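Quick question, first post here. What does this chain look like in 3D?
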Amino acid sequence: MKKKAISIAALALSGILLTTALPTAQFSTSAAIVAPKAENDPLNPLTPEEIDKARGIIVKSGHYKTSMVFNEITLREPDKQAVWKWVLESSAYKAKTKLKREANFVISDQRDVYEGVIDLDKGTLTSWKKNTSGGYSYLGSSDEASKALSENKVWVAALKKRGITDMSKVIAFGLSLGYYGPNDADPSRRLVKYTAYYNTGDGNFFTHPIENLVATLDIDKNEVVKIEEGDVVPIPMNDHGFVKDDKTSAREKAKPILIMQPKGVNYQITGQQISWQGWKFHVRLDPRVGPIVSAAAFNDNGKDRKVMYQGNLGGMTVPYGDPSMNWYWKTYMDAGEYGVGKNGRPLLVGSDVPNNASLIDATLNDDNGKPYTSPSVIGVFERYADADWTHKEGAVTDARPRLELVVRFVATVGNYDYIFDYVFQQNGNIKINVGASGVAAIKGVTTKTVFSTDKAYIDEKNKDLAHGTLIEDNAVAVYHQHIYNFRLDMDVDGQKNTVLELDPYAAPLKDNPVMKSSMMLKQKTYYKEQDAIQKFDPDKIVLVTSPTTKNEHGYLTGYQVIANAGGTHPFAQDALFADDDWLMKRAGYLKNHIWVTPYSVNEQYPDGKYINQNPKDTGLASWAKQNRNIYQTDNVVWITTGTTHIPRAEEFPMMSTEWASTMLKPFNFLDRTPTLDLPKTMMEE
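> Answer (accepted):
Ran it through. Tokens below.
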């Protein structure tokens, strides 16, 4: 990358003043500032050269076939204890210490999936094995399969029956079909279900579904397996374009808000480590789960204290609640079926992120194993986040403004766009926010109007409205859920932790003339995996604690994990499916909101590693059945959160972002309020 000179004065005028940044960072000034590379950082993602090297070793190994697809070539992390030592040691130690560099890989040869390890230092293949757990890796595009469908006489005839003769206006969209029993699909074949949309030219084809028409294709043989067809229903044809000319808007035009930081930003990025207001952590992009935040430590009076070794999306499931032909199989497991990180897109400055954001590129591998750049895919920025504390005492009123540091990533998966925010606060909190936007999934129906009755939202007589909201003529937005699970490898003041709960209750009082009860706490410690499994209780305090470290008042230092920390949509209390539905058999993690397992490098994904068409649960729920020890050991906390999405008219044709949130909060981790030293104002003095 070429260095581009830019004056400090120009940076200050733009609201940005950085001294260090990622080697491939791109800033809203359109200038690049090259930081120290931190070449020895053991958490750095693979470089293009390392991806090329790994590919070359595999190709020459004797296992490789030209028909193979490279699903993943990613960093294999060194031993976590060695990583923590590297992160928390002096710069002199870091400069002379280089940990082992290895790469994990996943390769598909049609239905067969292979995984292994490359020693990048020695240039050798150290592991190669075939997956035997069922399922297969990411669903890729298949132009040949699409062509086979477009030439199928039954498919063409079904479209003509619906008045469509210009096949160039038909968009066939291939989707994962999950697993719904042996009579529905054959897991020994790589199958994809195609539905069709009509391209009216309004730039929003997802809102023009061709209903009651589904094709199942074998993408290895490029063969149409079957075509299912139901009654003809009208295609929603109104203009659903979302790119509008604001000159025609009746809304008073908003004046711009510019975020200026004339003295520079408060964070520093060295290599891929970010330091900000006492926080220190590493960030990289993974093709499956998106951003991974690693080695997060909080500085307490000059000492960096461990909080979390790794935090990231584990998996997500978006199930729809309509049992009809086009819909019953739509229970997407986006991370494992498509790759959330692989579907990341460039962030738009001024809308996706504010104008003071720093944008970071990432390097991934394509299907041929070659490295490519995913540009401007991670954003880092600061923002004002209300008063951290405020108080009036007599004639004196005082307050302190809170800053937040946001690490943002956006993935477009089909019709939805997901915003993932990792938010660090000066008081020691970490929030994980997920926002859903994009286009609601639309079902074509015959109904044009809801006739108001005393049950305006429920009309038992109209089957069109049984499983969705009418949001346009002939268009129903189907009820569904967005369920996210986060894998949080907590290392609070060390790798050995104990997880416990504090449960407030009303304790009865006897012989008290003024009160019949008092407020007290019950404590329960989790010793085994099954002890910790639970649904979210807003009153209960779940803590990850250090068994060996206490604050100055004698309490075990800890962090509270909160599965539902707010958001704009109702919390998904449960997956709204029966326990014996195939979805729940395959993804048991959906049944509870908090799980705790002992750390295992091989347990990364709550839905299992290979989930495409896998009839079995090979993930979190199956692991937890072992009921292993979790007391005073290295633990991983899994948080399931999300939203139940009952669509509304205001979300069509474009959905305003709806948020779900979880939080990690210090709980007697510190000795007192950590933000007493914040400046009194954010204004220039």
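The radius of gyration is 27 Å.
The chain has three domains: 48-130, 143-229, 267-667.
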